[in-house]
Amino acid sequence: MENHPVQPVSDFVFRFDLGDVREEPVYEDPVRELVRSVLAALLDVVVLTSGGSETRVDGFRFHNEPGRVCGIYPESK
Amino acid sequence: MNCSAPALTHPTNPEPLSRLLSVIMRGAGRLVECEANGVPVDVTAVFTRQEPLEPATVQASRVGVQTLQSVRWSEPRIELVARLLHSVRRATELHGPHGPLRVDGFRLKHLSNWLARDARSGDPFPYLRWDCGVRCTFCYQQGTHPLLRNLKEEITWSEVETRLRYYRPERGEFLFDQRFFELGEGIPHPRFAEVLRRFREKDSNILVVPTNGRGLTPELVRELARFQPVGIRISLISATPEVRRRIMRDDQPEIAIDSLPLLRSYGVPYAISLMALPTVSFEDMERTVRYAEKHGAQYVVVHPFAGSQFINVAKGRAIPNYEREERLIDFIRGLRSRTAIPIILLMDLYERHIAGESKLPLLVTGVVAESPAARAGLRAGDEITDTEGVEALSGNQFATMLRAAARMDGGRVVLGVRRAGQHLRVEVNCAQAEGVVWAPIEGRHGFAGILTDMPGFDASVFRSIAEAAAKRKARHVLVLSTMLMAPVFRARLEQFASLLPLGTEVETEIPHSGFWGGNIFTGDHFVVPDFVDCIQNWVSRRGTKPDLVIVPASPFSWAAGWQRDLTGTPFTEIERRTRVAVVMI
After folding, report:
1. Cβ pair A16:B106 closer than 8 A
2. Average pLDDT over residues B395-404
3. Which one-letter DSSP state was computed for residue B478?
4. pLDDT tens digits along B161-184
5. How many A-B residue pairs are in contact by the CB < 8 A criterion?
6. Range(s) for CATH 3.20.20.70 in chain B?
7. What pLDDT, on the 0 to 100 scale, is given for residue B23?
8. According to the 3-state scheme, what is the secondary structure of A9-72?
9. In whole angstroms, how far apart are CA B28 and each of B86, B208, B530?
């Protein structure tokens, strides 16, 4: 009797297109924009907390730029 | 190697940026595999880009890919991955073993990472959508917003099989949902019977199938009966062929109409729904209700016609019309007295408000014929005061208590009932409900055949508002509501005002729905821009901002707990755009 190998069950492949991301850059500096867009994306999915309390965040600054706060959602957006 | 472990380099600022990129790419790489031109690729290095990636180089959507919009609503973490990869791609140049890569998409790795856990009731395979076969004049897809068009091609059998494979009812798990606005329902799917069979192999619980009835042929009804317990919810609209043909543009209205006696003959329980359209007379609605009663429907659901831009086409927006709704309430109340079948009007809080029933006991809206509740002698209009001595505060609580009680002590539950000023104790044998199917409907539970009304504005709502106001030291609170809920809320506000911090002023405002085309469930037709417009108009009229805005949870609660409206926009966007503190209750 011939043995037929059992075909592994394969899952449907869920594919997504990065061209679907509709997000205009806010900052020209690509590093600043990278951080901003990463934070904006995260804040649409998570709520940051501090000491167990929810904290609303709308900006950030680099550790080496103590005087410059960058808005995550500037008015122009 | 793929995006899970790239060797990241950055010539000018190697440390912090490199670490950030590494974290993002490694994190994303554990979940997805990058694609370039539709082919999986290994990302082995990331270099900083001197110039940002030009938007023009972003490739347009490709054949065979899912749209992010279809998952924004139910699984926004996929969108998060996309946005992170997009951000990295814009700031850097991705390289593979053979040089630069133009990464333009990704595919999900291990699907077990993307299981939702939810007590999903009703339709267990909402992804199974096929052309519904009718073109209802009131369909919410009329004038569908471009954002929600072309979200998905018809589902492939491979995807159906995969979704069935990951459906694990014993753990309450299923593969993430996708939201399709343009495709119809599951019954017309060419392999619907096979889906039923596969479903039944995994799940012995009730299968609730919503349908417009167009596909309920004798063959299909016979097939459905093989997979009991099944409950059918038929959007019948009218039992008059000409009316159904005109309103639903159904070229074979007899199929749906004839399915009622057919379902009964096969012992398949079902309920029907009607739409209180201005173009359907009360006489026709009554004929339909009587027809459903004659053929053993469990109950009738009447949807008010709301949330449509087409209610008043001339003005292009929905105009609150209390007179029309009050005429409908009068009619339904009269009809209930003339028929025995439970009739649920999906605006019961408003109905009770205008009837002057200011207190909110848990009211039995109807009792399904031949159910345990009917056998115990419960009647429409009874007030449920307690379950085994525990006070029942809302329909949801009541159903939960009934289910719990039914599992103990032989399934017998003693209910406290107030009827015509008398207090009664009624014993319901819920164990008898095991062999009977009571299809759940939105916001209500028909367990043991008892249909109760919606949970109302009880003290907990006002305590939550008080808590939010106190936390933000808010004096002026603006509550956004709906046409039918706002008057009820105002009446309750008088009752519960003492719960609010002293000096708190509360106002209500009704946003207008500017998004959907046709009819959509009343409480869920607002989207984030509707709330934003409403707040901005209020601020512009008053010249001042409220200290706090309360938005109803309903429009955001459908989204698998992600607090997004039906377009997938997070409610936090309201606060961002208006710069006013917003709390969802």
Report:
1. yes
2. 73
3. E
4. 999 999 998 888 889 887 666 668
5. 125
6. 116-298
7. 86
8. CCCCCCEEEHHHCCCCCCCCCHHHHHHHHHHHHHHCCCCCEECCEECCCCEECCCCCCCCCEEC
9. 11, 37, 34
What does the pLDDT look like over A3-56, one tens digit per residue?
566 666 799 999 999 988 888 889 988 888 999 999 999 999 999 999 999 898
CATH of B361-455, one of 3.40.50.1820, 1.10.10.10, 2.30.42.10, 1.10.760.10: 2.30.42.10
Residues B82, A34: C-beta atoms closer than 8 Å? no
Question: What would the two tokens of residue B27 be?
Answer: 């994190």
**Chain A positions in Cβ-Cβ contact with residue B49 (cut-off 8 Å):** 30
Q: Does B26 touch chain A (CB under 8 A)?
A: no
Which residues have a Cβ under 8 Å from the Cβ of B254 and sit 6 or more positions away? Answer: B241
More confident residue, B183 or B156: B156
Q: What is residue B518's predicted lDDT score, i.e. its pLDDT?
A: 58
Domain ranges of chain A: 25-71
CATH of B459-584, one of 3.40.50.2300, 3.40.50.720, 3.90.1150.10, 3.40.50.1860: 3.40.50.1860
Q: B116-298 in CATH: which number? A: 3.20.20.70
At residue B471, the 3 state secondary structure works out as: helix
Question: Which residues, at least 6 apart from B459, have a Cβ–Cβ distance to it below 8 Å?
Answer: B496, B499
Of A15, A23, A25, the CB nearest to B52: A25
Cα separation values, B475 from B157, B472, B549, Å: 57, 9, 11
Contact in structure between B581 and B549 (CB atoms under 8 Å) = yes
The ipTM (two decimal places) reads 0.89
* pLDDT single digits (tens) B89-121: 888 888 888 888 999 999 999 999 999 876 555
Residues 31-90 of B with CB under 8 A from A: 35, 38, 48-49, 52, 58-62, 64-69, 71, 76-80, 82-90
In chain B, residues under CATH classification 2.30.42.10 are 361-455
* Mean pLDDT across B233-252: 96
Which positions ≥6 away from A46 have C-beta within 8 Å?
Answer: none
B443 pLDDT band, cuts 50/70/90, is very low
